[in-house]
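=== RUN LOG ===
request id: a7f3
mode: sequence -> structure
chains: 1
length: 263
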Amino acid sequence: MSEPAFYTRVDEDTYDSTPATASPWDESLQHGGPPAALLATAIEATRPDEPDFPIARITVDMLGGIPQGRMRTEVDVTRPGKRVELVEARLHVDDRVAVSATAWRIRQPPGSTQEHAAAPLDLPPLPDEQPQEFFPGTSPEWGYGRAVDWRFVTGGYAAPGPASLWTRLRIPLVEGEPTSPIARMLVVADSANGLSGELPLAEWLFIPPTLSVTVLRAPQDEWLWFDAHSTIGPHGRGLAQATLADRAGLVAVVAQPLLVAPR
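=== RESULT ===
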C-alpha cells in the first residue's frame, strides 16, 4: 500500500483525502468507512480526557456521493450529560454537508459489571495472508480495498452471500496520528453490505444510505472478527447486518438498510 494514511491533516478540523479512501465504483468518490471513522474521531475529541465515556452507538448518514478532496469536520454536543450524552458531527465537502453522524455516549465505570460480562467467543484462527481479490470488475489497485487486510474464513468479495473473516487496517486513519479502536472499527464497519451481497454486484445495485453501529466495548486488538450477512426483502429493499468481535468477545453489531435494484 503506497498511501501513508486515509487522510492527511491540514489543520485542527480540516483534512485532505488520499486514494486509500476510494470507492470501488468511482475513484473520485470515497468509500463510506473512512469518513465514518473521521467523524467518530471528531466526536471522541470532544472528551479527550474521559476514556470512560465512550461512543455506545453511532449512526452515520451519507447524504449523497462523498467527493475526494478537502473536507472539514464540525461537532456539537446536543444533549450533554454526566452518564449519557448525545453528540452530532458533520463532514463538509465543497461547502455542503456530505456526511452527518449522531452518537450516544454512555459512561462505563470500569469493572462495575465484570462478574456478569459475556464469556469470550470461540472464533476461528487467523488465516495466513491471502491474495486480495475484490469485486468482479474492480481494479486490483482499488485504494480502500488495499488499505485493509482481509482474511476470509467463509465467503469473499467475489462470492455472493454471507462472509466471515478477520480484518485489520494496514494504514492509520490520519497520517502520523494514532487511530482509536472505535475509528479502526468504523473504517471497516461500512463494508457489511459489500462483503455479504446476496446477488451478483455486476447485475444489481445495493445502496446503503446509512450505517448504524451499536458498540458493546472498544476492540482490544488490531484484528477484528467480522461476520456479515444480508437479507433481501420482496419490495426492493434489503438489510445488511454484521457482528464484530475479538478474542475477548462481542464488540459491536452493525445494521444497514439497502436499496436493492437492477443496474
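=== NOTES ===
Residues 7-108+121-262 form a domain with the Porin fold (CATH 2.40.160.210).
The helical segments are 33-44, 143-147, 181-189, 192-195.
=== END ===
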